């Protein structure tokens, strides 16, 4: 028995030795993941050159079949801006592992960066079949649908993403969808929920403040913008918005102080230089205003609001040919704004082109009549100045009946504005209307009685009687997303956005 045990023990090493060659053969096959940890380490340390060296070695050993090495190499190529090359590598990963949703997500992401939004949505939908509870897939699908102008689908996907996981970025994109739809109320509700979820996000606070500012709810706008600046005192969007709000209420000097801070952060901002120019316009520094506005125009040559302001300043300086040039350019970009045609008509009248001035007034009246209809539904604000200036022109041509018709239309709009808001009208505008009313034998007692808080800008419309055009200038502010009505405020206006304090300066022509 003992001899048999000894024999067994002596046979054991022999059998092990006979199996060793087979084990060594098995170990000769490459382990695909053996250096993945090192690749990952170099990647998260952003040591991309060392990472690429290890990837190259790993792919050589595995004959190009290491999925993770290919995946990380594609990520590095995307960071280097080689989107097409990264797409090809991600597609290779998807071939190696077609059941991995992450590979498809990266393929879709590269397609999105290449501007192939339709193809990206198709790949994201395939990835969603593999993982139906992935917040990122739903969010990115929503973004793709926004670019494809399919806003309903975008809204559904973003809501689904929020249901899976709440993220600030999803709230921001959903708010943008509602803004693209023109639904400010829904956008505000979304951003309010976002601020409740993330009360220290300065972008959300600033955007919500700007939306309130757009609606004229200054208290809430000031509150949210102030909170944004509390968390981030260097937030230039919030500073620019706060400055424009001060400009709206006539504090030009305070607004300019704010804009100096913004100029350090974004010196090449068209809205910044537009607002600075209109602050100078409000202070009657017309040459400085034109210099700033022309810089804004150089930075954003297709911004119709800057062109509008340039035309307005040139009208104020009685440089009617230049005003005509800029107002015509503004109309090319914004052909559905009645006030632009009205100011163009003022310039043409002073250039003694009466026929074209009448055509411009006719178009201004037509567009403003549409605005009056939309005003009843809360969409736009009608402008009685269009009819007043047209009436002055017609009266000076001896067409009293037509002038009377425009005068009566103006009175209807004034009554509409008085019934709908507590708006007050400019005293000089009232004076011109009363004189015209007396000349047309409709009495001097007009519906306006109080001096206005509206911004004004006076232009000659005829050579034989005093005609005036008082128009709020518009400004462009990318942070606000719409026209500003602050710059020419000689008195404190309750209007939309911008700031300044009145100071008498020399009127110098260029």
Q: What is the residue-mean pLDDT, rounded to a whole number?
A: 78
Please mark out the parts with pLDDT under 50 across 5 or more consecutive residues, or reply none.
Answer: 1-19, 21-27, 375-379, 444-510
User: Which structural category fits the helices and strands?
Assistant: mainly alpha
Summarize the helix and strand pattern as letters. Answer: HHHHHHHHHHHHHHHHHHHHHHHHEE
Q: How many helices in DSSP terms?
A: 24
Structure description:
The chain is mainly α. The chain is 68% helix and 1% strand. It contains 24 helices and two strands. The protein has helices spanning 2-27, 36-44, 48-61, 67-79, 83-96, 101-113, 117-130, 135-147, 151-164, 168-180, 184-197, 202-214, 218-231, 236-248, 252-265, 270-282, 286-299, 304-316, 320-333, 338-350, 354-376, 384-396, 400-420, 427-439; strands at residues 475-477, 482-484. It has a two-stranded antiparallel sheet with strand order 1-2. β1 (475-477) and β2 form a beta hairpin. α17 (286-299) runs antiparallel to α18. The radius of gyration is 34 Å and the shape is elongated. The N and C termini lie far apart (122 Å).
């Amino acid at each position: 028995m003992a001899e048999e045990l000894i024999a067994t023990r002596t046979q054991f090493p022999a059998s092990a030795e006979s199996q060793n060659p087979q084990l060594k053969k098995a170990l000769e096959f490459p382990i695909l993941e053996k250096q993945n940890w090192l690749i990952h380490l170099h990647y998260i340390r952003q040591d991309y050159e060392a990472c690429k060296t290890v990837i190259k070695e790993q792919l050589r050993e595995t004959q190009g079949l290491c999925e993770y090495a290919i995946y990380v190499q594609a990520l590095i190529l995307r960071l280097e801006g080689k989107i097409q090359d990264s797409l090809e590598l991600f597609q290779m990963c998807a071939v190696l592992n077609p059941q991995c949703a992450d590979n498809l997500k990266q393929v879709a992401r590269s397609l999105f960066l290449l501007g192939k939004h339709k193809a990206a949505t198709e790949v994201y939908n395939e990835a969603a079949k593999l993982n139906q509870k992935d917040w990122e897939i739903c969010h990115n699908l929503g973004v793709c649908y926004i670019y494809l102008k399919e806003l309903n689908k975008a809204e559904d996907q973003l809501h689904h993403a929020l249901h899976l996981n709440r993220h600030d970025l999803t709230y921001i994109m959903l708010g943008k969808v509602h803004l693209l739809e023109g639904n400010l109320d829904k956008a505000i509700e979304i951003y309010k929920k976002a601020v409740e979820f993330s009360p220290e996000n300065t972008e959300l606070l600033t955007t919500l403040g700007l939306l309130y500012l757009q609606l004229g709810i200054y208290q809430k706008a000031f509150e949210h913008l102030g909170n944004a600046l509390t968390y981030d005192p260097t937030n230039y969007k919030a500073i620019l918005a706060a400055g424009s709000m001060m400009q709206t209420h006539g504090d030009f000097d305070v607004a300019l102080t704010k804009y100096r801070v913004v100029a350090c952060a974004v010196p090449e901002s068209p809205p910044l230089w537009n607002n600075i120019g209109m602050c100078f316009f409000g202070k009657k520094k017309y040459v400085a205003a034109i210099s700033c506005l022309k810089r804004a125009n150089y930075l954003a040559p297709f911004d119709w609001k800057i062109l509008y302001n340039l035309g307005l300043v040139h009208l104020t300086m009685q440089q009617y040919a230049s005003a005509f040039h800029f107002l015509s350019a503004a109309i090319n970009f914004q052909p559905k704004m009645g006030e632009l045609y009205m100011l163009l008509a003022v310039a043409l009248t002073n250039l003694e082109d009466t026929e074209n001035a009448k055509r411009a007034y006719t178009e201004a009246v037509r567009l403003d009549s549409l605005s009056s209809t939309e005003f009843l539904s809360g969409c736009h604000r009608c402008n009685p100045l269009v009819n007043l200036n047209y009436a002055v022109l017609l009266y000076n041509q001896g067409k009293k009946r037509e002038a009377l018709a425009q005068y009566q239309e103006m009175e209807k709009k004034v009554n509409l504005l008085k019934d709908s808001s507590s708006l007050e009208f400019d005293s000089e505008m009232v004076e011109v209307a009363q004189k015209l009313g007396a000349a047309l034998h409709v009495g001097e007692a007009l519906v306006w009685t109080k001096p206005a808080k509206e911004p004004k800008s006076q232009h000659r419309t005829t050579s034989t009687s005093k005609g005036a055009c008082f128009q709020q200038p518009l400004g462009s502010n990318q942070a606000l997303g719409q026209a500003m009505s602050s710059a020419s405020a000689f008195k404190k206006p309750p209007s939309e956005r911008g700031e300044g304090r009145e100071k008498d300066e020399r009127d110098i022509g260029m």
